[in-house]
């Protein structure tokens, strides 16, 4: 392998995970960036998302943080899905990457208050691989009543089978490990993490698997000379697994990303991968393993394609702005406020809603993909054209 022209290095005081990775690479050789990213985010002891001491510090801001309106509108969409499925006696709602349960509390509180019949049929499963986050959810007072009513449970993994329901995620796929490729000369090469004179550094080498080139070919993607790009094979595996587990119902994916033709165009010559530390974005991906977030934009074309191979049909694809406005309009915007709100609280609620839908912010950056299985031509308000 040859070293990249601009190696990325850790600081003089390496993180504990950097020390572990250095020993591994010294013994076994360079690792793919996907393997490096997986360790950085999900190492059981030192991963960014899994280590206990990470809480409550975070280097990112989500729609859930912006306003409880987000959870209320999602709850309305889930209730409509339940109705479209014929009001089944049991409806399994599974959240991927549920964290400490903040979104679950928003959704369940609103359903319990506004849709008691749906609530009686609902079983909410929050799937979260981090033991620390599952423990935080177990201690969440706002979820306690739903646990007691047997309408909420935390789990490390997805249920083995989902007879009827919805599997959804909000900013889950962007945090899955990605391979990094470059079009160099007349071939594709892969970026690995190896060792240089000053610690961890980037190195180019042959593709670790032919499946990486196949990923691009099957979607009609041709990288330009010198273009860096991410390939998220794990996202494809996830959506295929979801399709296999779901017998009848929906999947709902909210994340930032693009269709393939835009994600791999000339505007993304360096890819979309970013590191976040102390609320600052950088491309210093090797600087602090385990202590910074790593994230890449989602390829919605790949999610849709691999979902279809697993029996999931496209229901619709739209921006978060259109999705939330469609749901708000469905309730005549009543969900934007709660009973008993003062005038100033109502004004604040409207401003928070604008944060979720502004094109310059989350509204157009985030996309929504809904897929269905075992139901013919469903109609959902979140997909209604404005």
DSSP helical segment count? 15
The number of domains: 2
What are the low-pLDDT stretches, counting only 5+ consecutive residues below 50? 2-11
Query: Helicity range of the residues?
Result: 25-40%
In CATH, what is the class of the largest domain? Alpha Beta
Mean pLDDT: 88
Evaluate the radius of gyration.
Answer: 21 Å
Structural class: alpha/beta
Q: Tell me how many strands there are.
A: 17
CATH architectural name of the largest domain: 3-Layer(aba) Sandwich
Strand content: 15-25%
Can you walk through the features of this model?
The chain is of the alpha/beta class and 386 residues long. It has 2 domains: 2-48 and 182-230 and 269-295, no CATH class; 63-175 and 238-257 and 298-383, Rossmann fold (3-Layer(aba) Sandwich). Helices cover 37% and strands 23% of the residues. It contains 15 helices and 17 strands. It has helices at residues 16-28, 33-42, 63-66, 69-84, 102-114, 116-121, 131-138, 141-148, 211-218, 233-245, 260-263, 300-309, 320-330, 343-357, 362-365, and strands at residues 2-3, 31-32, 91-96, 122-127, 152-155, 165-170, 179-184, 187-196, 199-205, 228-231, 249-258, 274-277, 280-282, 293-295, 298-299, 313-319, 366-373. The strands form 3 sheets. Strands 3, 4, 5, 6, 11, 15, 16 and 17 form an 8-stranded mixed sheet that branches. Strands 1, 2, 7, 8, 9 and 10 form a 6-stranded antiparallel sheet that branches. Strands 13-12-14 form a 3-stranded antiparallel sheet. Helix 10 (233-245) runs parallel beside helix 12 (300-309). It is globular. Mean pLDDT is 88; it is low at 2-11.
